[in-house]
Amino acid sequence: MIRTKKDLKHYLNLDRQVYGITKRFPPFCGGEHWKFLIALRYEEYHANQKGIYHKILKKVWYMIHRHYGIKMGWDIPINVFGPGLKINHFGLIVVNDNVRVGAFCDIHQGVNIGQQGDLADDVPTIGDNVWIGPGAKLFGRIHIADECAIGANAVVNKDFLERGITIAGIPAKKISDKGNPWIRHLKNN
């Protein structure tokens, strides 16, 4: 969760790292992934501050975040993903507001991470360095350990607490001990 300007800078630096972006600002034309992440992170920052100034800027960043979200088919709320979020493709991605995802999540199109029942906390908690393949569906009060890989079109509705495994299938089950081969680590900038 982004609470200070230092947190904001940290999140943006790590988001930029996963895309290999070296420039601070996105290009005028193109760069929608980066523009979306900038808007997401600034909206998060202003939403977690107090005062009328932050309330107004939260609304401004919300409109920009929403614009790029609609343009690319992403419904990704604030205060859900840790730093280093990588969204690989345009296309539908839907995430519940109450989900919590760690650092360096690598997510593909067609993913749905949501609520199973009526309770607000009936949503997944996902660890660091998790790779989520195209079309995966994760729902219910489940926990996914760090460094896991979730296969394409997997339906995950139970806990996977073993670190560094690959899960796939309908319903999902462990298929390998290899896990996410694209582990990312913090770099000091």
UniProtKB/TrEMBL annotation:
Transmembrane segments: none
SUPFAM superfamilies: Trimeric LpxA-like enzymes
Domain of life: Bacteria
InterPro entries listed in its UniProt record: Hexapep (IPR001451), Trimer_LpxA-like_sf (IPR011004)
One Pfam family from the record: Hexapep
Residue stretches in coiled coil: none
UniProt-recorded name of the protein: Serine acetyltransferase
Species name: Bacteroides difficilis
